[in-house]
Amino acid sequence: xxxxxxxxxxxxxxxxxxxxxxxxxxxxxxxxxxxxxxxxxxxxxxxxxxxxxxxxxxxxxxxxxxxxxxxxxxxxxxxxxxxxxxxxxxxxxxxxxxxxxxxxxxxxxxxxxxxxxxxxxxxxxxxxxxxxxxxxxxxxxxxxxxxxxxxxxxxxxxxxxxxxxxxxxxxxxxxxxxxxxxxxxxxxxxxxxxxxxxxxxxxxxxxxxxxxxxxxxxxxxxxxxxxxxxxxxxxxxxxxxxxxxxxxxxxxxxxxxxxxxxxxxxxxxxxxxxxxxxxxxxxxxxxxxxxxxxxxxxxxxxxxxxxxxxxxxxxxxxxxxxxxxxxxxxxxxxxxx
Length: 337
Prior knowledge:
- There is one protein chain.
- This protein has helices at 3-11, 17-29, 36-49, 64-88, 125-133, 140-146, 163-171, 180-202, 223-236, 253-256, 292-298, 314-318, and strands at 92-98, 102-107, 110-114, 149-153, 174-175, 178-179, 211-219, 240-244, 247-251, 262-263, 271-277, 303-308, 328-336.
- The protein has 2 domains: 57-256, no CATH class; 262-336, no CATH class.
- A hairpin with a 2-residue loop joins strand 5 (174-175) and strand 6.
- It is 41% helix and 21% strand.
- The strands form 5 sheets. It has a 4-stranded mixed β-sheet with strand order 10-12-13-11. A 3-stranded parallel β-sheet has the order 4-1-7. Strands 2-3 form a two-stranded antiparallel sheet.
- The longest helix is centred in the first third of the chain and has 25 residues, at 64-88.
- The chain is α/β, with parallel strands linked by helices.
- Helix 2 (17-29) packs across helix 3.
Protein backbone atom coordinates (compact mmCIF):
# COMPACT_ATOMS: atom_id res chain seq x y z
CA UNK A 1 0.00 0.00 0.00
CA UNK A 2 1.44 3.37 -0.98
CA UNK A 3 2.09 5.89 1.81
CA UNK A 4 -0.20 8.51 0.28
CA UNK A 5 -2.95 5.93 -0.10
CA UNK A 6 -2.62 4.98 3.58
CA UNK A 7 -2.66 8.65 4.60
CA UNK A 8 -5.85 9.15 2.62
CA UNK A 9 -7.40 6.16 4.39
CA UNK A 10 -6.45 7.53 7.84
CA UNK A 11 -7.36 11.14 7.09
CA UNK A 12 -10.63 10.38 5.29
CA UNK A 13 -12.10 7.46 7.25
CA UNK A 14 -15.19 7.13 5.09
CA UNK A 15 -13.15 5.86 2.14
CA UNK A 16 -14.43 2.67 0.54
CA UNK A 17 -13.47 -0.53 -1.23
CA UNK A 18 -9.88 -1.71 -1.67
CA UNK A 19 -8.34 1.34 0.01
CA UNK A 20 -10.39 0.66 3.14
CA UNK A 21 -9.47 -3.04 3.28
CA UNK A 22 -5.78 -2.34 2.66
CA UNK A 23 -5.77 0.30 5.40
CA UNK A 24 -7.48 -1.96 7.91
CA UNK A 25 -5.05 -4.77 7.10
CA UNK A 26 -2.06 -2.49 7.62
CA UNK A 27 -3.35 -1.18 10.97
CA UNK A 28 -3.98 -4.66 12.35
CA UNK A 29 -1.25 -6.80 10.77
CA UNK A 30 1.37 -4.36 9.48
CA UNK A 31 0.79 -5.62 5.93
CA UNK A 32 -1.85 -4.22 3.57
CA UNK A 33 -1.91 -7.50 1.61
CA UNK A 34 -2.86 -9.72 4.55
CA UNK A 35 -5.77 -12.09 3.93
CA UNK A 36 -8.91 -10.39 5.25
CA UNK A 37 -9.85 -13.53 7.20
CA UNK A 38 -6.68 -13.22 9.29
CA UNK A 39 -7.43 -9.56 9.95
CA UNK A 40 -11.02 -10.37 10.93
CA UNK A 41 -9.83 -13.07 13.38
CA UNK A 42 -7.50 -10.57 15.04
CA UNK A 43 -10.22 -7.92 15.29
CA UNK A 44 -12.68 -10.43 16.75
CA UNK A 45 -10.10 -11.51 19.33
CA UNK A 46 -9.77 -7.89 20.49
CA UNK A 47 -13.56 -7.42 20.50
CA UNK A 48 -14.09 -10.57 22.58
CA UNK A 49 -11.36 -9.59 25.05
CA UNK A 50 -13.29 -6.36 25.66
CA UNK A 51 -16.47 -8.32 26.39
CA UNK A 52 -18.27 -7.45 23.16
CA UNK A 53 -19.92 -9.52 20.44
CA UNK A 54 -17.93 -10.78 17.47
CA UNK A 55 -18.46 -9.47 13.98
CA UNK A 56 -21.01 -11.83 12.45
CA UNK A 57 -20.02 -11.01 8.88
CA UNK A 58 -17.18 -9.25 7.09
CA UNK A 59 -18.51 -5.79 6.28
CA UNK A 60 -15.47 -3.55 6.72
CA UNK A 61 -15.34 -2.85 3.00
CA UNK A 62 -18.79 -1.30 2.89
CA UNK A 63 -19.15 2.43 3.22
CA UNK A 64 -22.33 2.36 5.33
CA UNK A 65 -20.55 0.36 8.03
CA UNK A 66 -18.84 3.51 9.32
CA UNK A 67 -20.78 6.31 7.64
CA UNK A 68 -23.01 7.32 10.56
CA UNK A 69 -20.43 6.47 13.22
CA UNK A 70 -17.59 8.49 11.75
CA UNK A 71 -19.00 11.05 9.35
CA UNK A 72 -21.87 12.18 11.56
CA UNK A 73 -20.35 12.03 15.03
CA UNK A 74 -16.66 12.73 14.42
CA UNK A 75 -16.05 14.71 11.24
CA UNK A 76 -19.00 17.07 11.69
CA UNK A 77 -18.11 17.99 15.27
CA UNK A 78 -14.38 18.21 14.57
CA UNK A 79 -15.07 20.84 11.92
CA UNK A 80 -17.26 22.73 14.41
CA UNK A 81 -14.41 22.67 16.93
CA UNK A 82 -11.78 23.78 14.37
CA UNK A 83 -13.93 26.71 13.29
CA UNK A 84 -14.36 27.82 16.93
CA UNK A 85 -10.60 27.53 17.44
CA UNK A 86 -9.81 29.60 14.35
CA UNK A 87 -12.19 32.37 15.39
CA UNK A 88 -10.00 33.08 18.43
CA UNK A 89 -7.26 34.21 16.02
CA UNK A 90 -4.36 33.59 18.40
CA UNK A 91 -1.51 31.05 18.18
CA UNK A 92 -2.17 27.59 19.58
CA UNK A 93 -0.71 27.40 23.08
CA UNK A 94 -1.35 23.73 23.94
CA UNK A 95 -1.72 20.42 22.12
CA UNK A 96 -3.51 17.39 23.55
CA UNK A 97 -2.77 14.21 21.62
CA UNK A 98 -5.44 11.51 21.83
CA UNK A 99 -5.44 8.07 20.27
CA UNK A 100 -8.85 7.84 18.59
CA UNK A 101 -12.58 8.29 19.24
CA UNK A 102 -13.57 5.71 21.81
CA UNK A 103 -15.34 2.59 20.55
CA UNK A 104 -18.13 2.01 23.05
CA UNK A 105 -19.75 -1.18 21.84
CA UNK A 106 -20.22 -3.50 18.90
CA UNK A 107 -23.41 -5.40 18.21
CA UNK A 108 -23.21 -7.58 15.14
CA UNK A 109 -21.72 -5.25 12.55
CA UNK A 110 -22.97 -1.95 13.98
CA UNK A 111 -20.23 0.16 15.60
CA UNK A 112 -20.80 3.02 17.97
CA UNK A 113 -18.37 5.65 19.21
CA UNK A 114 -18.14 8.24 21.93
CA UNK A 115 -16.27 11.33 20.80
CA UNK A 116 -15.11 14.26 22.91
CA UNK A 117 -16.93 16.76 20.68
CA UNK A 118 -19.69 14.48 19.45
CA UNK A 119 -23.45 14.29 19.81
CA UNK A 120 -22.95 11.45 22.30
CA UNK A 121 -19.75 12.67 23.95
CA UNK A 122 -17.38 10.43 25.83
CA UNK A 123 -17.99 10.44 29.57
CA UNK A 124 -15.85 9.97 32.66
CA UNK A 125 -12.27 11.20 32.94
CA UNK A 126 -11.81 11.55 29.19
CA UNK A 127 -14.27 14.44 29.31
CA UNK A 128 -13.81 15.74 32.86
CA UNK A 129 -9.98 15.78 32.96
CA UNK A 130 -9.55 18.45 30.23
CA UNK A 131 -12.29 20.61 31.76
CA UNK A 132 -10.78 20.35 35.25
CA UNK A 133 -7.29 21.03 33.89
CA UNK A 134 -8.48 24.43 32.66
CA UNK A 135 -10.86 25.00 35.60
CA UNK A 136 -13.71 25.32 33.11
CA UNK A 137 -17.45 24.75 33.38
CA UNK A 138 -17.95 25.69 29.73
CA UNK A 139 -18.63 23.15 26.95
CA UNK A 140 -15.49 21.39 25.79
CA UNK A 141 -15.35 23.11 22.37
CA UNK A 142 -15.62 26.56 23.94
CA UNK A 143 -13.04 25.63 26.60
CA UNK A 144 -10.47 24.48 24.04
CA UNK A 145 -11.07 27.53 21.86
CA UNK A 146 -10.69 29.99 24.75
CA UNK A 147 -7.49 28.37 25.99
CA UNK A 148 -6.11 27.81 22.48
CA UNK A 149 -5.94 24.01 22.72
CA UNK A 150 -5.35 21.86 19.63
CA UNK A 151 -6.94 18.46 20.23
CA UNK A 152 -5.37 15.96 17.81
CA UNK A 153 -6.35 12.29 17.41
CA UNK A 154 -3.84 9.88 15.91
CA UNK A 155 -6.76 8.78 13.74
CA UNK A 156 -10.48 9.45 13.46
CA UNK A 157 -11.39 5.77 13.38
CA UNK A 158 -13.08 4.32 16.50
CA UNK A 159 -11.59 0.87 15.94
CA UNK A 160 -11.16 -2.00 18.44
CA UNK A 161 -7.68 -1.63 19.98
CA UNK A 162 -5.91 -3.49 22.77
CA UNK A 163 -2.51 -3.46 24.48
CA UNK A 164 -0.98 -6.06 22.17
CA UNK A 165 -1.92 -4.07 19.06
CA UNK A 166 -0.47 -0.89 20.61
CA UNK A 167 2.78 -2.77 21.25
CA UNK A 168 2.88 -3.84 17.60
CA UNK A 169 2.29 -0.23 16.48
CA UNK A 170 5.28 0.87 18.58
CA UNK A 171 7.81 -1.89 18.07
CA UNK A 172 6.86 -4.15 15.14
CA UNK A 173 4.81 -2.42 12.42
CA UNK A 174 6.69 0.19 10.40
CA UNK A 175 5.77 2.60 7.61
CA UNK A 176 8.10 5.04 5.86
CA UNK A 177 10.94 3.97 8.18
CA UNK A 178 9.11 4.87 11.41
CA UNK A 179 7.06 2.88 13.93
CA UNK A 180 3.42 2.96 12.89
CA UNK A 181 2.48 4.92 16.04
CA UNK A 182 5.03 7.65 15.21
CA UNK A 183 3.84 7.77 11.60
CA UNK A 184 0.25 8.19 12.83
CA UNK A 185 1.29 11.00 15.21
CA UNK A 186 3.17 13.06 12.62
CA UNK A 187 0.50 12.46 10.00
CA UNK A 188 -2.16 13.58 12.49
CA UNK A 189 -0.36 16.91 12.98
CA UNK A 190 -0.16 17.40 9.20
CA UNK A 191 -3.83 16.47 8.84
CA UNK A 192 -4.83 18.92 11.60
CA UNK A 193 -3.06 21.76 9.77
CA UNK A 194 -4.51 20.78 6.39
CA UNK A 195 -8.08 20.56 7.68
CA UNK A 196 -7.70 23.90 9.47
CA UNK A 197 -6.43 25.48 6.26
CA UNK A 198 -9.39 24.05 4.33
CA UNK A 199 -11.76 25.85 6.71
CA UNK A 200 -9.92 29.17 6.38
CA UNK A 201 -10.19 28.91 2.60
CA UNK A 202 -13.96 28.52 2.90
CA UNK A 203 -14.35 31.30 5.48
CA UNK A 204 -12.79 34.55 4.31
CA UNK A 205 -13.02 36.11 7.79
CA UNK A 206 -10.79 33.43 9.36
CA UNK A 207 -6.99 33.58 9.33
CA UNK A 208 -4.64 30.64 8.90
CA UNK A 209 -3.92 28.69 12.09
CA UNK A 210 -0.61 29.34 13.87
CA UNK A 211 1.22 27.58 16.70
CA UNK A 212 3.09 29.25 19.56
CA UNK A 213 6.87 28.85 19.39
CA UNK A 214 6.91 27.75 23.06
CA UNK A 215 4.13 25.20 22.96
CA UNK A 216 3.36 22.54 25.59
CA UNK A 217 1.63 19.29 24.82
CA UNK A 218 0.25 16.19 26.52
CA UNK A 219 -0.34 12.58 25.54
CA UNK A 220 -3.87 11.83 26.73
CA UNK A 221 -3.87 8.30 25.40
CA UNK A 222 -3.11 4.81 26.78
CA UNK A 223 0.52 4.72 27.95
CA UNK A 224 1.24 1.64 25.83
CA UNK A 225 0.89 3.96 22.84
CA UNK A 226 2.44 7.16 24.20
CA UNK A 227 5.43 5.55 25.89
CA UNK A 228 6.51 3.85 22.67
CA UNK A 229 6.25 7.15 20.81
CA UNK A 230 8.31 8.99 23.43
CA UNK A 231 10.95 6.24 23.53
CA UNK A 232 11.32 6.46 19.75
CA UNK A 233 12.13 10.19 19.92
CA UNK A 234 14.50 9.53 22.83
CA UNK A 235 16.45 6.84 20.96
CA UNK A 236 16.54 8.85 17.71
CA UNK A 237 17.25 12.16 19.51
CA UNK A 238 14.69 13.76 17.20
CA UNK A 239 12.30 16.66 17.55
CA UNK A 240 8.96 17.06 15.80
CA UNK A 241 9.26 19.82 13.22
CA UNK A 242 6.46 19.98 10.65
CA UNK A 243 5.77 22.87 8.28
CA UNK A 244 2.83 23.03 5.87
CA UNK A 245 1.88 26.20 3.96
CA UNK A 246 3.96 28.38 6.31
CA UNK A 247 2.33 26.81 9.39
CA UNK A 248 5.00 25.35 11.66
CA UNK A 249 4.68 22.94 14.59
CA UNK A 250 7.91 22.49 16.53
CA UNK A 251 8.01 20.17 19.54
CA UNK A 252 11.61 19.98 20.83
CA UNK A 253 13.11 16.63 21.70
CA UNK A 254 14.04 17.68 25.24
CA UNK A 255 10.39 18.49 25.92
CA UNK A 256 9.09 15.25 24.37
CA UNK A 257 11.37 13.01 26.44
CA UNK A 258 11.50 15.13 29.61
CA UNK A 259 11.40 12.99 32.74
CA UNK A 260 9.40 13.83 35.82
CA UNK A 261 11.79 15.05 38.51
CA UNK A 262 11.90 13.20 41.80
CA UNK A 263 13.03 15.01 44.95
CA UNK A 264 13.92 13.44 48.27
CA UNK A 265 13.29 16.64 50.22
CA UNK A 266 9.97 16.76 52.05
CA UNK A 267 7.74 19.69 51.15
CA UNK A 268 5.35 20.96 53.79
CA UNK A 269 2.20 21.08 51.74
CA UNK A 270 -0.84 18.95 51.10
CA UNK A 271 0.11 15.66 49.49
CA UNK A 272 -1.94 14.09 46.73
CA UNK A 273 -1.59 10.36 46.16
CA UNK A 274 -1.02 9.69 42.46
CA UNK A 275 0.79 7.25 40.23
CA UNK A 276 3.23 9.43 38.35
CA UNK A 277 4.36 8.52 34.80
CA UNK A 278 8.08 8.40 34.09
CA UNK A 279 7.75 11.05 31.37
CA UNK A 280 6.34 14.52 31.96
CA UNK A 281 4.14 14.72 28.86
CA UNK A 282 2.09 11.60 29.76
CA UNK A 283 -1.30 12.63 31.16
CA UNK A 284 -2.64 9.17 31.97
CA UNK A 285 -2.52 7.73 35.46
CA UNK A 286 -1.56 4.18 36.35
CA UNK A 287 -5.23 3.23 36.18
CA UNK A 288 -5.07 3.96 32.42
CA UNK A 289 -7.41 6.95 32.62
CA UNK A 290 -6.73 10.67 32.05
CA UNK A 291 -5.80 12.66 35.16
CA UNK A 292 -6.53 16.39 35.32
CA UNK A 293 -3.55 16.81 37.66
CA UNK A 294 -1.16 15.09 35.25
CA UNK A 295 -2.69 16.96 32.32
CA UNK A 296 -2.01 20.28 34.06
CA UNK A 297 1.54 19.13 34.74
CA UNK A 298 2.11 17.99 31.14
CA UNK A 299 0.82 21.29 29.78
CA UNK A 300 2.99 23.25 32.26
CA UNK A 301 -0.07 24.85 33.87
CA UNK A 302 1.28 23.71 37.24
CA UNK A 303 4.51 22.11 38.43
CA UNK A 304 4.43 18.91 40.43
CA UNK A 305 7.25 18.41 42.92
CA UNK A 306 7.33 14.74 43.78
CA UNK A 307 8.33 12.83 46.87
CA UNK A 308 8.99 9.14 46.67
CA UNK A 309 6.75 6.89 48.74
CA UNK A 310 8.68 3.71 48.05
CA UNK A 311 12.06 2.37 49.13
CA UNK A 312 13.59 2.73 45.66
CA UNK A 313 16.34 5.35 45.46
CA UNK A 314 14.68 8.11 43.39
CA UNK A 315 17.99 9.26 41.90
CA UNK A 316 18.88 5.82 40.60
CA UNK A 317 15.33 5.50 39.24
CA UNK A 318 16.06 8.06 36.54
CA UNK A 319 19.73 7.30 35.93
CA UNK A 320 21.39 4.66 33.83
CA UNK A 321 19.06 2.42 31.83
CA UNK A 322 16.34 4.97 31.39
CA UNK A 323 14.35 3.11 28.75
CA UNK A 324 14.22 0.00 30.90
CA UNK A 325 13.05 1.74 34.06
CA UNK A 326 9.55 1.08 35.29
CA UNK A 327 7.07 3.32 33.56
CA UNK A 328 5.26 4.28 36.71
CA UNK A 329 6.22 4.66 40.34
CA UNK A 330 3.78 5.27 43.17
CA UNK A 331 4.49 8.69 44.60
CA UNK A 332 3.10 11.35 46.83
CA UNK A 333 2.79 14.56 44.87
CA UNK A 334 3.20 18.03 46.28
CA UNK A 335 1.35 20.52 44.13
CA UNK A 336 3.05 23.90 43.72
CA UNK A 337 0.99 26.41 41.74
